[in-house]
Amino acid sequence: MTLSVFTDEYFMKEALKEALKASDLDEIPIGAVVVSKGRIIARAHNLTEQLHDVTAHAEMLAITAAANFLSGKYLEGCTLFVTLEPCVMCAGAIHHAHFECIVWAADDEKRGFNTYNSSILHPKTTFSKGLMAEESRQLLQEFFRKKR
Amino acid sequence: MTLSVFTDEYFMKEALKEALKASDLDEIPIGAVVVSKGRIIARAHNLTEQLHDVTAHAEMLAITAAANFLSGKYLEGCTLFVTLEPCVMCAGAIHHAHFECIVWAADDEKRGFNTYNSSILHPKTTFSKGLMAEESRQLLQEFFRKKR
Fold first, then answer.
1. Smallest CA–CA separation between A122 and chain B, in Å?
2. Cβ(A66)–Cβ(A41) under 8 Å?
3. What are phi and psi of B131, to 5 degrees?
4. What is the pLDDT of residues A63-90, one digit of tens each?
5. Is there a contact between B33 and B62 (Cβ–Cβ < 8 Å)?
């Protein structure tokens, strides 16, 4: 990432704010932001219920929005911050988009792409995980607790 | 699939017609249709260049359109006909959508989901492949030959 006054924690907090918006809509609370040159160029949250669309994960919506912002389909040099480990669908999209880096908070041990094959990501894409994982997990646990 | 006057070959031909539409737009020629109760409820072709969006694969657009038609995000009882083996992203979406069956024409040995992990599909989703594979391959080869 280029020089930025913002930290990774700042961007992950923004992704968590997106997750909160999803929660307010009774959607599973997952949020994402796309950062280019130290700026957020796209933000999105899970909208699968609102849109009746299984493809409307936070990451997918953020990728589409970021590509729209940049007027190009490749997101080279961009970093995706997402509050939960991407599923296979989203990891596939992340591969296609040529992200420079992915940062996710909590692991998804059931549906995370790493469960299937960690090489789904593009070999040039770096990733890190665990940043604010506890906050993300609490948000998810609270959501599912209320559902019961 | 329920009783239908149409054959699988008829539906794959319709998917190939979609692929031709993509080709006419200078998009990689891949097409898909979603069939419910013997009727086509959604049809789509690859639009990644037109939309500047790596997520705009034929399957993804067809899934969104079919869910919109049915006003529900799950496509249980539906069959997806697609002219090329789905990539990981699309296979992940197919999993989420709970398709009953997937039929694809040509294998994609480089990017097909089977290269990564064949269990990406939902365990209840059946699949078959090879139907009109030669027609699909010819369309793709012709497209890439012109590109050179």
1. 12
2. yes
3. -65, 115
4. 999 999 999 999 999 999 999 999 999 9
5. yes
- Mean pLDDT (whole number) for B118-138: 94
Nearest residue on chain B to A99, judged by CA atoms?
A: B54
CA dist B141 and B136 (Å) reads 9
CB B89 within 8 A of CB A92: yes
Quick one: B136 exposed, middle or buried, by C-beta within 10 A (0-12, 13-18, 19+)?
buried
CA distance A137 to B66: 33
Counted across chains A and B, CB pairs separated by less than 8 A come out at 92
Residue B122, burial from CB neighbour count under 10 angstroms (0-12, 13-18, 19+) = middle
The CA distances from residue B81 to B36, B40, B68, B113, B122, in Å, are 11, 10, 18, 16, 16
On chain A, the residues whose CB falls within 8 A of the CB of B88 are 88-89, 91-92, 95, 120
ipTM for the predicted complex:
0.94
Residue A134 CB-half CA count within 13 A: 0
* Of A73, A74, A120, Cβ closest to residue B88: A120
Please state, in angstroms and rounded to a whole number, the distance separating the CA atoms of residues A62 and A99: 12
Alpha-carbon distance B112 to B129, whole Å? 12
Annotated active-site residue B142? The verdict is no
Which residues of B fall within a CB distance of 8 Å from A68?
A: 52-53
Q: What percent of chain A has pLDDT over 70?
A: 97
First to last CA, chain A: 41
- Do residues B31 and B23 make contact, with C-beta atoms less than 8 angstroms apart? no
